[in-house]
Specification:
Blueprint (H helix, E strand, L loop, with lengths): L11 H28 L6 H33 L8 H31 L9 H17 L2 H6 L3 E3 L4 E3 L6 H34 L4 H27 L1 H12 L6 H23 L1 H11 L1 H10 L1
Antiparallel strand pairs: 1-2
GO cellular component, one term: membrane
Protein name: G-protein coupled receptors family 1 profile domain-containing protein
Subcellular location: Membrane
Length: 301
Amino acid sequence: MPATTVFIESWFLPVEILKTICTFLTIVCCTIYLCIILLDKTCHTLPMILTANTYASTLAFACSMLSTSIATIEHDLKLIYYQDPQCVGRCFASHASAFWLNYSFSIEAMYRYVIVMYPTRLYFQTIKFHTIIICLSWLCGTLYPVVFLFLGSIVYNVDNQICQVPLGLSFPMIYAALGVYLIPLTMTVFIYFRLVCYVKQMSKRVTPIYIISRAQRELRMVQHTILTSILLISLGAPYTIFIVMSFFHSAPQYHFRLAYISIDISLLLMMIVLFCFNEPLKTVVKKKLHPRANMVMAVIA
């Protein structure tokens, strides 16, 4: 029979506080970055719009994770062993926002691919086209977890004090792993290798230098996207390990508590990495932080 109570371990509260801090800092970073992109006209470009989509997706995912951590802390402190009315909604939001986040990387990679492979097809390089793609990804992400509701797959796990799809060899879990992780990551990696092969072929042919340099630049951007995706998934490796374990044996009792630690930490690290890779955003931030230096340089010029 499923447990109706849970023994409160001494490490529960420190871990949940750490998760809360990480997700809160992630939310702060995302909000700042989005405000900069929105308010600074130099950031109103298609690449930055795609970056803003990633930040918005991360913000949504971090908010869902933060609400989950807060609810878990409340349940642990008040010794509540039943789900609250918002429990299923938080699970739904986490799956939807994770979908948005992972596919935002694929959308960025597709944009780089189109620029290099089809430079004359200008419509596919317009803000209008990519806005449609972004809206479709958010629509699909919203519809994607509906399957869990239809199948009744979201259940309350009293040991971990959350509502989630149970681990195990089942259609809902395979569907979740494919939809949120494997498909978008495979798409991004496939695009990267296609670009690598194309750039190598260009270097063997008589091709103008500016075309080769542009292709190499876009290739580096896709490489950054892949590195960010791998960072997010690698730091979320405990969750993946527990999923694989559940196919053959039962996962540890507090698997969701343990897995969510790495996920929340990886979100914050991902924000730092994204900022380091984003030169336009770094330039704007430097201007905001050192306005006097910029004025002096302008006067000298």
